[in-house]
Design goal:
Elements lengths: L15 H28 L4 H13 L1 H7 L4 H18 L6 H4 L6 H17 L4 H25 L3 E4 L2 E4 H23 L4 H19 L5 H17 L3
Antiparallel strand pairs: 1-2
Helix pairs in contact: 1-2, 2-7, 4-6, 6-7, 6-10, 7-8, 7-9, 7-10, 8-9, 9-10
């Protein structure tokens, strides 16, 4: 049977201060690269939706880095609370200019940060893979739904003022299916049984992404994906 993913080893010979510095440094560098990329895309007049999704997907990937580096729960929660506060304030003031590059200032960014904070608070200590599932389904799934829908969406529908496409919803479903399967595989060893978990999680995520109003999919999708994955895993 394939072996589960092995996080970066932290030995007793590695000082706690140095370990913490590596963890914070790696996350900071990644976030800096994400925002630098968004700046470059914005400078060269790329599609604002593309820029927005680069930030959306890129910031979500921070959780994978934190998982690999075994970033402690207290630090994840602290970062989540700070990010949530900044995201909320940025709805009213321009204190987070990088988000202005994506051309939108909605509560969706706050919901996104809040969902990450909730997930790491309740799952990070013992079952970080489910926190990762929630965030990856939201970041990659929603990101691909928007990009595919904008480029290939021919069959559209509108719900509560939000325009969606069946092509985008399928992209959300398929990407979520892949994300859930990969994360469970890396955490526990790959198995076909993971598809039995990934399929309903992906289907519900696609429905929530399509019908959640006002950016609330940024909290409904990650929380439901993580919770459903956790409970389905206990049944198989």
């Amino acid at each position: 049977m394939p072996q589960p993913i092995i996080p970066m080893p932290i030995t007793s010979e590695t000082s706690e201060t140095m370990t913490l510095a590596i963890q914070i440094g790696a996350v900071t560098v990644w976030i800096g690269l994400v925002f630098l990329t968004s700046k470059i895309l914005h400078r060269y007049n790329q599609d604002p939706e593309l820029v927005r999704k680069v930030v959306h997907i890129g910031t979500g990937n921070v959780l994978l880095i934190a998982w690999w580096l075994q970033v402690p729960t207290w630090l994840c929660i602290t970062a989540g609370v700070v990010f949530s506060a900044i995201a909320l304030l940025s709805h009213y003031t321009s204190i987070l200019p990088m988000l202005d590059d994506v051309g939108r200032k909605t509560y969706g960014v706050f919901y996104y940060a809040l969902s990450i904070t909730i997930l790491v608070t309740f799952l990070w200590e013992k079952t970080p893979q489910y926190a990762a599932i929630g965030v990856m389904v939201m970041s990659w799934g929603d990101g691909m739904a928007a990009l595919v829908g904008k480029r290939f969406g021919k069959h559209t529908f509108t719900y509560l003022g939000n325009k969606r496409s069946f092509e985008g919803s399928f992209a959300m479903f398929f990407t979520s299916l892949v994300m859930v399967s990969l994360i469970l595989g890396f955490a526990d060893g790959f198995s076909l049984m993971h598809l039995a978990i990934a399929f309903p999680v992906a289907a519900i995520a696609a429905l929530l992404e399509a019908f959640s109003p006002g950016g609330t999919d940024n909290i409904s999708v990650p929380l439901s994906s993580a919770t459903l994955s956790y409970f389905l895993q206990t049944l198989v």
